[in-house]
Every structure is written in C-alpha cells, then in structure tokens.
Amino acid sequence: MDTIKNYIATHKERFLNELIELLKIPSISADPAYSKDVLKTAEMVEQSLKDAGCDTTEICKTKGYPVVYGEKIIDSSLPTILVYGHYDVQPPDPMNLWTSPPFEPVIKKTELHPEGAIFARGSCDDKGQMYMHVKAIEFMITNDLLPCNVKVMIEGEEEVGSDSLADFLENHKEKLSNDIILISDTGMIANDVPSITTGLRGLSYVEVEVTGPNRDLHSGIYGGAVPNPINVLNKMIASLHDEDNRITVAEFYDKVEEVSNEERAEMAKAPFDLDEYKKALDIDDVYGEKGFTTSERYSIRPTLDVNGIWGGYTGEGAKTVIASKAYAKISMRLVPHQDPDEITELFIKHFEAIAPKGVKVKVTPHHGGLPYVTNMNSLGYQAAAKAYEKTFNKTPIPERTGGSIPIVALFEQVLGSKTILMGFGLDSDAIHSPNEHFGVWNYLKGIETIPYFYKYFTELNS
Amino acid sequence: MDTIKNYIATHKERFLNELIELLKIPSISADPAYSKDVLKTAEMVEQSLKDAGCDTTEICKTKGYPVVYGEKIIDSSLPTILVYGHYDVQPPDPMNLWTSPPFEPVIKKTELHPEGAIFARGSCDDKGQMYMHVKAIEFMITNDLLPCNVKVMIEGEEEVGSDSLADFLENHKEKLSNDIILISDTGMIANDVPSITTGLRGLSYVEVEVTGPNRDLHSGIYGGAVPNPINVLNKMIASLHDEDNRITVAEFYDKVEEVSNEERAEMAKAPFDLDEYKKALDIDDVYGEKGFTTSERYSIRPTLDVNGIWGGYTGEGAKTVIASKAYAKISMRLVPHQDPDEITELFIKHFEAIAPKGVKVKVTPHHGGLPYVTNMNSLGYQAAAKAYEKTFNKTPIPERTGGSIPIVALFEQVLGSKTILMGFGLDSDAIHSPNEHFGVWNYLKGIETIPYFYKYFTELNS
C-alpha cells in the first residue's frame, strides 16, 4: 500500500485541478437561482465516479436535487463500505468579505496551511472532502488494491436539510445495504492532532415572523403607541435565554443527556487553549451557559442561536419608519436524546405563548436532525483509528463536536448502519463563512488515509 | 377673495398635472444613486416659483442638496411670510407592497378620499403640500391679491436630517428675515375635523453595530460558546425598555416636560376612537408606556423605536451561521425640553455600558431635531385659525403630534421666528410607507385656505 504515496506524488496536480473545476460551479442548494449549477455539479460528480472506475453510476432522481450513486462490487462475501458526501454548498454571502471570489478557486498559503490551501466555497464543506474519497477509490481500483466492495452516494441537499433523503433511503434500502458508512464532512483538531468525531449535535431550525401594524408606519406619528414588531421580536428573542444563558423554552432540557463527571473529566483532557481560542476569534471573552466549559458548551450542551434577523429600513441613512413585520432565523443545536421534531414543537408553543398582545407570530420549521454518538469500541472506529496511526503516526483523539449531520442518525434508523466520521478539515477553515478554504496537505492526507481504512476494516471483519 | 374658488375650478386639472410631473422624479435624498433626480427636482421647483410670479428665484448651493429660494416683495412696510417646504422624499421600499409604482403617480379613490387621491412617494410628504403654497402664491400674484411680502424656501435634505440648513440660515439671516414662517408638512385630524399642529416631537437617530467574533462562524461548531452578536443585540435592545415600557437609558426622562393634568384633560377632548385606531392598523391591542393614553404616547411622551435591524443570513432557506456583526437603526422621539444632542450622548453612554464582555459596540449618530411647541395666542395661530374657519366653516383643533420637523426649532433659534404648521394631509395617507397618497380634495382645500392666512395675518398685524 505504500504505492498510495507514490500515486499521490504522481497525480497531485491533476487531483487539485479536478477539484478546482468542481469548485467553480456555484451549487448553492438554498437558492433556486442556482438550480442549473446544482444539477451540472451532480453530472460532474457522476462522471468522476465513472472515471474512478465504478462499475455502475447513476443520477438518482428525488423530489429535490438528485443523489449521485456509484458502486464497485468485487465480491459479495466481502464487506461493503458506503461513502456519503454532498455536492451542494452554502450560499457565499456576505460576498464583500471574500478576499477572492468564492467560485474562482485559488491556492494561497496561510499560517496553518504553509503548503497552501484552496480558497473557494465548498472547498472543505464538502466538495473537497467528498472528492478525497473519489480519488482514494480511483487509486484502489486502478492499482487493483480495493479490498472490499464500495458504494458511493453524494447528495445535493445537505445544506438545506437533506429533505429528500429519508424517502431515498427508504426506497433504496437494498441498493444501499452496507457494513459501515464512511463520511468526511467534519474536521480534526489540528494537522498534527488527528481526531475522529464521535458525537454530533442535532438541529432544529425555524424561521419566525412577527407582524405588528398592517403596514409600515411613520415613527413620529405612531412611535410609542403601537407594537413595533422589531422591538417586540428583540424582546421575545432576548427572553429565550435566562441570566445564566440557559434556554427558557419550556421542557427544552427535559431529555438532555446527563454527561457524568467522569466523562467530562475525560473530555477535558483534549487539548484546548482558551486564550488561543479567544485570540483566533478576536473576542475578549467567551459567552455561554453557566456551569460549563467552552468545549462543553459547543459539544455536550444544546444551544439556541439567531442565524439571521431583518426588518424595517436597512439601507443607507436614516428612515423614520415602524416596520409592519420583523423576521429571524433561529437554530437550536441538540444533544442526545433531544428529538428535533419535539424541540421544534416546544419552540413553536413557547414562542407563540410569549408573544405580547398586539402582534401576530408565525413560526415556520426549516429542517432538523437527530444528535448522534459513535461507539469507540466498534470495528469501524478501530479501523479508522489504525488508518490515522498509519499515516499520521499518532493515535487519533475521539472528539464530540457541535455540528450536525442529520443524515447520520437517519442512516442508523433506516439502513441500520453505523457511521464513521473521518474529517480532514480544520475549524479555522471557515466553512459556512467568507474565505472558506481547505489545506492542500489535508486534501492529499485524506486521499492517503482513506485506503487504509478500507484495508483495516476488511481485515478486522475477516 | 371668493375668486380663489373660481380660480381653482378653472385651473384644477393643471394644478394636478403640474404636481404629477413633480412626483414623477425620484428625489430620494437618502440614496446617492438618485442625486441627479434630486437636483432636477430643485430646478423644477425653481421654475414653478418663477411661473407663479416670484420676482427673484435662486437655487442656493449648500454643502449638500441646494435650497430653492423665491420671493415677491411688494412693500417693505408690510409683514413678510416665509414659506418652508421640502422637495426631497423618503426611499420607497419595500417596493413590493406598492399597488402602483411609487414614481408613476395615479389618482385612485379611497374610502377617506371619495374624490380621489394621488398615489406616489412624496404626494403628501412634502411635494403635494409644498406645491399648494406655490399655487396659492400664483393665485394671489396673478389676481393682484397678495396682501404682504412672501419668501419661499424649499430644501432638499429634510428626509435626511436637514444637515446643511443650519449653515444656510446662519449665512442668509437677512434674506430670510420674516414675521412668520408657514409650513405644510403635517396632517389634520380628518377632512371634517381641521386641526393645527401646535406641538412637534424632537428626534435623536442612531445606528448601532455589535461585533462578536471576527468572522462569520459555523453555528454547529461555535454555537453556544461564543458571543452571537445578534443574540446580544437583541438582549441589549430589549433592555432599553422596562416592564412598564419606560425607556431605561439613564437620565433619559430628566428634562421631559411635565404636562399638567388640566392640559392632559384638554387634549383628551380631541376626537379619538381607540377601536377605529386598532382596526385601521389591524392590531388587537396598542402597546406603549404605562400610565398614558394612546394619544399621549404619540404626542407628549418620548419614545424609542427600532427602525431597522439586520445581521446574519437573511436569504431563502436555512444557513447555520453565527454572524460576526449585527446592526440596528434606532430613533428616539423627544418632547420639550429634551435636547437631541444630549439624548444622543446619553444613549451612546448607556449602550456602551450595557454591552456584555465579548462584543464590541459602535454607535453612530445620524441626525437629530429639537422638539417644538406653538403658542395658541400668537397672531400667527389666530390668523391660521380664522383661515380654516373661513374655508372649513369649523374652528380648527390645536393638536400636538408625534412627528418631528427639526427645522422648526432651528428657525426659532437662528431667525427668531415662530412657525405655523398648517397641514392638510391625513394620518392614513401613508407617508413614509408604501402607497403614500394625498387627497385631491385636500390638495385643493390647502390651495384655497392658504391665501386667507395671508389676508388675516396681514390684517391682524396692521
């Protein structure tokens, strides 16, 4: 298997150029204006699976954007690995903060990526990490080193809630049957501190609308006498946390997993430098739920954040208006054993209950996802740990992170499969932000590490 | 003077068409993209003053948009009336709520305007009301009925705070010297309930910016652990009112005029139907400072309203982001004897003081204006009351309203003149809102009433 290093050295430029072509297409699933680009990206991904040597490839229709599928079955008695990824990306705004255009990829050096990083929307999340798998599969098939069966499914709606995927899994249980699911859509602690994500938070995402008067009003004539929906929305949102920064939605914490003091002590051993953390974000203090450390706040505790707010006059200068409506997008990150649908219901009930007389409130659920925890004793985790040891010369750290990949819980429900999360990005790669990037070193290290997972997983299963 | 009715009957169509041409130009002073239109409007207004018979007209340069000036001096021993108005308009957004384009005026009938109303941005505020004066002057000069001297100044920055006007007044004290200032930039209670505005609230307007992390972050990875500037801004804004809806800015109420119970009882006699008010706005309850009626809340009490708020992802769908920055535009309406500069300082001090650790706060003052109260015993008020009695057959009601015309206080400071506010619009005319309109009846009634003010003011001064 040392041939992988040689193979990467030989094909490095091509690997980068292929990814760059993929990153040029603005496959923004959240905005219907880009639907053609999303579909074009699906076609490019299918072609890349063909080129990698898959026997069968297919663009599978769904109610939304299609799922790209490919497989290489070498022996039905051998284990089957199902790779999941997504070819859609987050919207790039605010555009003005990008130092280079989000869909014109360029390689630039950074402090953490001295060998250069590809700057583009989707470079890390998830086109870059998804494409590591395509190139690892190409290596294994081309060199006759594929030790087991592989199936690949790359979806196009991950950034908007994977709405069509539950149906797709239900309708293709047989086709998607596998022994383990492998995903690279998370990060690792640092290039010299490999880690495997063992816990993911769930998600409940809602949009709220507060309506006051039936039209925009002159604030001089009406100000002080009518419910201003922005003032009211601010008051309502402010009341969603108490003075200890605990969420006030009734019954919100009822099912939250109690993490034992022993476990918390174990987690606290992971390297974490609060000063570095604050410095990197240029904040003079952190902020969060009383009684928990920063690492706990973003991993084992649920949260409620406003992701967007708007209302009234937001142009240049001053306009003395009282808006008729105000809006916010609010997401809650959930931990085991909170159920996103239940939490969404609790939120709606609570938000309607706290609305003062004089305004009307509408809450629209966007999408949700169940929290997930991986067992460190599983063969999948062990195979992944051995793969990292081989290529990083270090034992990876098990890590619970705050992000959500709702599909991980769905896979277990519908397909009965466990998922291994081998992420090669860094927290500082600015996914979902302007100037998203993915280290060239990380990209190639992923391609190098993945085939070892196939090897060890097959060996451990034999 | 009955000739005014005949004159209007003869020239009605022309009066309407001329105003419509003026309304077609988007003279939006808040948006630099429209600067040519603002300047073009100034030229049209100057031409209209020439056509009306002014001896001298001039487009006077300022640091910002010019002031259009015109005059007709018939005898220096006679009184001089200075007419003030503005030719700039508010931005028209939200555009999608207009039933006809804001700069394509159309006349449509409404419940309150059975004779039709002109729908266009600026129709009432202030092009329509300003143009009543131009036409009234045309009538008086043409028919040799002008009883005194008249000066007219129409500015182009009223909707953005009249920034250049203080300098302009200082530099042209002699030219602008007068015995009374006459403005139509307010409303009246109803077409059968004429009223004269005797009190105006002042204004302090600020823009606030809250910065958390130095870049947009993924809410899964960072949510719950870092200060989310939108959540923080919401909490800060919510804290600006207490549970009685009193403003919590320290020292905010210290100089507020105490209105006596007798005066409050007098004001309470003005016709006001709370059910109608709520019905017109489609709200099931009003909202405001405890201990005051709705009419008091918008007239004799100061207020704090958010006029606009924005931050994070506001596009379609869901984006799980923690924004780096959140913004709001906040205005405070002031009453005698609050000073706008002082209030702005108090606000900045307070807002900075309540910012939690972890965020940075920036407050930018936009513009302000002093509150103003007119004396009912003045000759100006009496002349105006007599004019309304003549054309409406009713004694007008003195009314304090919530809007601000900062220049009114400025006039008194710099020119030493009192102002009479003869407004002919209705509260329901939707100024500053989509579908602004101005009743054709109101427009013509204004033209009819104004010459009587000249007549009675001259007589009372002789």
Task: Please tell me about this protein's structure.
The structure is a homodimer of 462-residue chains. Chain A is globular and about 80 Å long. In chain A, a hairpin with a 6-residue loop joins strand 1 and strand 2. Chain A is 34% helix and 22% strand. Chain A has two domains: 3-200 and 371-461, Aminopeptidase (3-Layer(aba) Sandwich), CATH 3.40.630.10; 202-256 and 302-369, Alpha-Beta Plaits, CATH 3.30.70. Chain A has 462 residues and is α/β, with parallel strands linked by helices. The relative contact order of chain A is 0.19. In chain A, the strands form six sheets. In chain A, strands 1-2-6-3-7-18 form a six-stranded mixed beta sheet, with helices on both faces. The first copy, chain A, has a four-stranded antiparallel beta sheet with strand order 12-14-10-15. Chain A is built from 13 helices and 20 strands. The model of chain A has no long low-confidence stretch (mean pLDDT 94). Chain A has helices at residues 3-23, 35-52, 127-142, 165-171, 219-222, 229-238, 261-267, 274-281, 294-297, 340-354, 379-392, 406-415, 440-461; strands spanning 56-60, 67-72, 80-86, 106-108, 117-119, 149-155, 180-183, 187-188, 195-200, 202-211, 217-218, 303-312, 321-322, 325-334, 360-369, 372-373, 397-400, 419-421, 425-426, 437-439. At the A-B interface, strand 10, strand 11, helix 5, helix 6 and helix 9 of A face strand 9, strand 10, helix 5, helix 6 and helix 9 of B.
